């Protein structure tokens, strides 16, 4: 019958020696000769290179046998308002959530835990944002992903930090990280650049009961992010509806002819009404413009006929005016020639020249005098008969 038991412990191991399920001591590296006389021994070996000491009865062992274990382990225990940042050999390793217990073996690595009180201070400092924000340094462990809300605010944007659905602050351009524990944290980005919005295909009746389809375009930018966040659930939809209503109001007070004659006036009416309303919610309306006014098919035909008739009437007026001016000019010329036979004769010769230029030959009877005097004759007036 054997009264001794030999146990070998490697340099990378530690062992807990139990007698009748009661912890007796921690066995370090080496060979241990243990007496079994009158004892019920049990040895549990642990690989300390894994750093963490894990056991089904961990809390009980740590608290019950604190004195026996103090030379072999380090104990880190957090309350519900604390977060631990675990360092192994001066490098961030992981995150210890609130209310958790971490027990590590001494001698394997240099382990420390920096404890952060998150009762009020839930934002990470710039150094931790750089190290933990994207989880790059520690391979984006699941614990880090669950622990940290990381957000980047680009240029020309702001971030709205909401904690437990309450707006806490407006974040400027930069990188931020917040502890998720014990609270709900959301960072909503708002674009401060000029944006455009289209109000398309609006069927509207004019003052004279003509149905039109109008397309409207507008540009805007946010000037007061806090007002937008607190007063509006969906600011883009709010802008769309406001422009839509202003467009309907403006069109319903004008006739078709008024709209077609001056679209800029319609733009001004919409812009003035919508700008005042939107400014109350931190939004600046920069420009409003009607892109298209589309008539129904039958109205388009009628309008084309009206335009065609108007143009024909204008053309007739111009034609009559030119004819009147031509007749007046001829009348004045005739009066001048009536009292000046030489000038009259010159005009006759000009006419003769134009006629002869268009024929191949001319037969002359009566000599040159006949050509000069008898080729072109004016009929005598009735008063001269």
Automatic annotation (TrEMBL):
InterPro entries membership: Band-7_stomatin-like, Band_7, Band_7/SPFH_dom_sf
SUPFAM superfamilies: Band 7/SPFH domain
Annotated localization: Membrane
A Pfam family recorded for this sequence: Band_7
CDD domains to which the protein is assigned, alphabetical: SPFH_eoslipins_u2
Domain Band: 148-307
Main location: membrane
GO terms for cellular component: plasma membrane; side of membrane
Domain of life: Bacteria
Membrane topology listed for this record: Single-pass membrane protein
Family: Belongs to the band 7/mec-2 family.
Name of the featured protein: Band 7 domain-containing protein
Provenance organism: Marinibactrum halimedae
């Amino acid at each position: 019958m054997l009264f001794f038991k030999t146990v070998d412990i490697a340099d990378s191991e530690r062992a807990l020696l139990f007698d009748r399920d009661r912890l007796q001591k921690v066995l370090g590296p080496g060979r241990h000769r243990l007496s079994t006389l009158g004892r019920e021994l049990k040895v549990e070996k642990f690989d300390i290179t894994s750093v963490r000491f894990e056991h089904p009865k961990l809390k009980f062992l740590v608290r019950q046998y604190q004195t026996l274990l103090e030379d072999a382990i380090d104990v880190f225990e957090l309350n519900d308002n604390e977060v631990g940042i675990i360092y192994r050999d001066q490098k961030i390793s992981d995150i210890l959530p609130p209310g958790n217990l971490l027990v590590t073996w001494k001698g394997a690595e240099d382990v420390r835990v920096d404890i952060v009180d998150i009762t009020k201070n839930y934002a990470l400092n710039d150094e931790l944002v750089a190290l933990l924000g994207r989880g790059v340094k520690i391979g984006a462990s699941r614990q880090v992903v669950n622990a940290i809300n990381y957000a980047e605010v680009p240029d020309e944007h702001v971030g709205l930090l909401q904690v437990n659905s309450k707006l806490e602050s407006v974040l400027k351009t930069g990188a931020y990280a917040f502890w998720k524990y014990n609270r709900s944290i959301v960072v909503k980005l708002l674009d401060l650049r000029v944006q455009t919005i289209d109000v398309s295909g609006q069927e509207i009746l004019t003052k004279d009961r003509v149905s039109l389809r109008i397309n409207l375009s507008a540009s805007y930018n946010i000037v007061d992010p806090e007002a937008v966040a607190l007063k509006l659930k969906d600011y883009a939809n709010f802008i769309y509806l406001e422009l839509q209503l202003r467009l309907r109001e403006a069109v319903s007070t004008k006739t078709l002819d008024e709209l077609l004659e001056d679209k800029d006036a319609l733009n001004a009416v919409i812009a003035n009404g919508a700008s005042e309303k939107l400014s109350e919610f931190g939004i600046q309306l920069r420009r409003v413009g009607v892109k298209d006014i589309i008539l129904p098919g039958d109205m388009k035909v009628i309008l084309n006929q009206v335009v065609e008739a108007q143009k024909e009437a204008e053309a007739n007026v111009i034609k009559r005016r030119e004819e009147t001016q031509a007749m007046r000019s001829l009348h004045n010329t005739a009066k001048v020639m009536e009292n000046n036979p030489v000038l009259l004769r010159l005009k006759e010769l000009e006419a003769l020249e134009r006629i002869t230029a268009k024929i191949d030959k001319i037969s002359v009877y009566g000599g040159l005098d006949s050509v000069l005097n008898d080729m072109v004759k004016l009929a005598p007036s009735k008063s001269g008969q």
